[in-house]
Amino acid sequence: MLIAVAGFSCMDALLKVFAAHYPPMQVTAIRAFASLPFLLLPLWWQGRLRELKPQRPGLHLLRALLGVVMLSTFVMALSQGAIASVYSIYMAAPLLIAALAAFWLGEHVDAGRWLAIGIGLAGVLLILRPEAGGLPLIAGVAAALSAVCYALAAITARILTRTDSSASIVFSFLLVMGLLAAVFASPGWVTIRPQDYALIGAVGMFGAIGQHYITEAFRHAPAAVVAPIEYTALLWAMAIDWAFWDVLPGFGMLQGAALVVLAGLYVAWREHRSAPSGAVS
User: Fold this and answer.
1) How many C-beta atoms lie closer than 10 Å to residue 7's C-beta?
2) Which residues contact 29 (CB under 8 A, 6 or more apart)?
């Protein structure tokens, strides 16, 4: 999960660059298609293309639809706000995953964890509170919607790992998401600038690394344990904002982010304590 977070953080910085020149749906399609070669070539080289066959195509399609909404709204948020501010809202996704896992996966969530989830969501509302230099409301709403879709996509991935290979899960997600986003983006498609092709290759590389390792992470541990590790992305985001956009987080954002992160860490700690021995090795 740590490797996945580093890869996705670098990729998101490039998506923010693209968001200044291309519509969100087009950026979503670019991100999906850019990662496919990095997935397919190693599988072809290793003779593992047969692993791409999906066992539950309906669930794969649902996850791809969630991915389209997730990425397009995320890019929309990045186009109007700092990466750290967007991430601060997005950090609520692990809390949502813990809540959804209770209903869909049968993972136990006690009263203390439900309270932590509520506190974390209150932190999101604190981040959304208007303030000078803060995150624009439309960007905050887009980031919140993206977080919800991410949580739902993570739960579907957790279910798919019971029957499908990681290669199949990642391939179907990228391919179908890319095709759907390209269809939606086609009426307003903007010609890609020649200088952006190298950056598109970098997006593909970072995205493929992140997608593979996040899928493996959810395969080997309960969702509520794995997901909070994504909070390290906030450190990456603040560093990237400062280094490339000369932006530092506001006090309100830091307050809200602290509530979200602490709530998520508490949920992870409680999940770890209640898990059977060896379940979260």
Assistant:
1) 20
2) 178, 181, 182, 185
pLDDT by position in tens, the chain (length 281): 889 988 999 999 999 999 999 999 999 999 999 989 988 998 899 898 888 988 888 899 999 999 999 999 999 999 988 898 888 888 888 788 878 877 776 777 778 778 888 888 888 877 777 665 567 888 888 999 999 999 999 889 888 988 898 889 889 999 999 999 999 999 999 999 999 999 999 999 998 788 778 878 878 887 667 767 777 888 889 889 999 988 888 777 888 888 888 887 787 777 666 655 444 33
What's phi and psi for 247, nearest 5 deg?
-120, 135
| Distances from the Cα of 198 to the Cα of 23, 34, 50, 118, 191, angstroms | 19, 11, 30, 43, 15
d(CA 62, CA 120): 27
Residue tagged 């303030």 (tokens): 131
CA distance 178 to 35: 10
What gap in Å lies between CA 73 and CA 46, rounded to an integer?
A: 36
**How buried is 114 (Cβ within 10 angstroms: 0-12 exposed, 13-18 middle, 19+ buried)?**
middle
Measure CA of the first residue to CA of the last residue in the chain; give whole Å: 14
- What is the pTM for the complete model shown? 0.81
The 8 Å CB, 24+ separation contacts for 233-236 are 233/5, 233/8, 233/9, 233/87, 233/90, 233/91, 234/84, 234/87, 234/88, 234/91, 234/261, 236/5, 236/6, 236/9, 236/10
